């Protein structure tokens, strides 16, 4: 279970205070995947980061009683001076997993060949994205966080392998997706919410959430 209790979050833009959430309370139970619709610039990434524990609310509590992933496509949490191999083994130890398994899994999925043993500082953006996504897939979570959908890369083989593995993971897990495009949510979610002016309004069905998002 993932729960927000009276959570507020805002930023000072230099000219005014931008409210992301205003005393929001909600709960996501396992097995009930949720899609959040929000226009660009309204705070989608901030909400996902708070769910992952990467950002703290100004007020209120974020409670987790299950394993919640870092956001799909998240590029932090690794040491760029170290190789993909070293990072994979270190993250495995943090999560109490077998370093040999996580290293082998990531090496196979991302397909970086000899670059897997080189520092991340020399990676292109696409290579780093492939490694981070393979690392996400190596760690099993109860709730997966997706900000705008699966990151695309130019590598066809990687997209095939990663896409297949992601679908297998999401068949067994709960998903929370934030996006400005309703079609992205349709792939994963049945229930929906709309974020507007710091208020998160929940609807029983994704269709109802889409209607309010598009017509309000």
Mean pLDDT across every amino acid position: 89
Determine the fraction of residues in helical runs and give it as a percent range.
25-40%
| Overall number of strands | 8
Low-confidence stretches: none
Backbone structural class: alpha/beta
Gyration radius (Cα, Å) is 18 Å
Count of helices? 7
Q: What is the approximate shape?
A: globular
What is the first-to-last residue Cα distance?
30 Å
* Beta strand %: 25-35%
Largest sheet: 5 strands, mixed
Structure description:
Helix content is 36%, strand content 25%. The chain is built from seven helices and eight strands, in the order βββαβαααβαβαββα. The chain has helices at residues 44-52, 84-94, 99-110, 125-138, 156-172, 182-186, 206-215, and strands at residues 2-12, 17-28, 34-37, 59-64, 143-147, 174-179, 191-196, 199-203. A five-stranded mixed beta sheet has the order 5-6-3-7-8, with helices on both faces. The chain has a three-stranded antiparallel beta sheet with strand order 2-1-4. Helix 2 packs across helix 3 (99-110). The longest helix is centred in the last third of the chain and has 17 residues, at 156-172.
Question: What labels would you give this structure?
Answer:
36% helix, 216 residues, alpha/beta
């Amino acid at each position: 279970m993932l729960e927000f209790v009276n959570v507020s979050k805002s930023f000072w833009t230099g000219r005014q205070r931008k409210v992301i959430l205003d005393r929001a309370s909600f709960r996501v139970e396992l097995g009930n995947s949720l899609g959040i619709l929000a226009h660009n610039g309204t705070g989608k990434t901030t909400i996902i980061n708070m769910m992952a524990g990467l950002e703290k609310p100004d007020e209120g509590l974020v409670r987790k009683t299950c394993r919640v992933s870092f956001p799909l496509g998240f590029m932090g949490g690794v040491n760029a001076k170290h190789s993909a191999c070293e990072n994979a083994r270190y993250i495995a130890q943090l999560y109490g997993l077998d370093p040999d398994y996580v290293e082998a899994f990531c090496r196979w999925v991302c397909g970086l060949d000899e670059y897997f043993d080189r520092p991340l500082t020399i990676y292109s953006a696409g290579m780093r994205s492939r490694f981070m996504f393979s690392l996400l897939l190596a760690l099993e979570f109860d709730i997966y966080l997706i900000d705008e959908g699966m990151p695309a890369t130019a590598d066809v083989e990687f997209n095939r392998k990663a896409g297949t593995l992601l679908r297998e993971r999401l068949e067994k897990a709960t998903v929370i997706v934030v996006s400005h495009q309703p079609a992205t949510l349709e792939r994963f979610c049945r229930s929906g919410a709309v974020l507007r002016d710091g208020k998160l309004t929940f609807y029983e069905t994704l269709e109802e959430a889409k209607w309010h998002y598009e017509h309000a």
